[in-house]
Amino acid sequence: MTKKDLVLPLRRIPPLGEFLDALQIKPAGLAAQLFTGVYNQLFVWSTDLRAQYDQYYCVEYPTLAAYLEIAHEIYLEPTELEKTHILKIKAPGGVLEEAYDDNVRDTVIDCVRELESSYED
Amino acid sequence: MDFVSNSSSTSFVYIAREMLSRDDFLTAAGVGPDSPVAPLFNGMFDELKTQIDRGTVLTRVEEVDGLEDRQDFTPDVLDRMKKGIEDGQTVTIGHFSSENNLAEMTLCTEIFEIESERFFINAYDNYW
Prior knowledge:
The complex is a heterodimer of chains A (121) and B (128). Chain A has 6 helices and 3 strands. Chain A is mainly alpha-helical and 121 residues long. Chain A starts with 5 loop residues before the first strand and ends with a helix. The relative contact order of chain A is 0.24. Chain B is of the alpha+beta class and 128 residues long. Chain B has 5 helices and 5 strands; from the N terminus they run βααβααβαββ. Chain B has a 5-stranded antiparallel β-sheet with strand order 2-3-1-5-4. Classes of the chains: A mainly alpha (121), B alpha+beta (128).
């Protein structure tokens, strides 16, 4: 895993409408167009490493944690390892691109975490 | 590994009776004023306004005809520009560059159209 990759352990993948709502973005318009792209990067085009492990790599690695650590250099807390989805987003781009000072990566991650914690409550 | 990148520029047209306001832009883009990503759209508004100020105002329908060969705009948008001139609206064409900041890079790499009762922006022209 490179520094630019993003890992999101989540109990539930939020539906697009909920994601846009949380960002206070209306469903049509330039903002929706841009952030549907962000949604796709995070939740549609990402790789679910837990699914990959369950489907293929459980034969090769004794535990999910071992698979994540050895194959991906991803080190998660036990609570994160319990999540239903462990999404790996390779070098997020566009408005999440860290090369730009004014990127919204942290803002979007905070929003996803808030959605996750509201679901857990 | 060497990294090679090319720059890109996108033409846009802005048609309106008066200068774009921040509130109108945010409303038409569909982002709430208290949205956590509103700063990004504020930045886009600033870039757009700067590029409109630097743009070329077309005052004659013949000038729009001259754009047809450049393939910067679709026939529908060219018609809309002509109609705008005939209706006394201000028709401004300008360019975005992807090399400055995120807000302008985003405007440059997205294919978009923003329409409200007060203005029309089209940036469909988009090639690398």
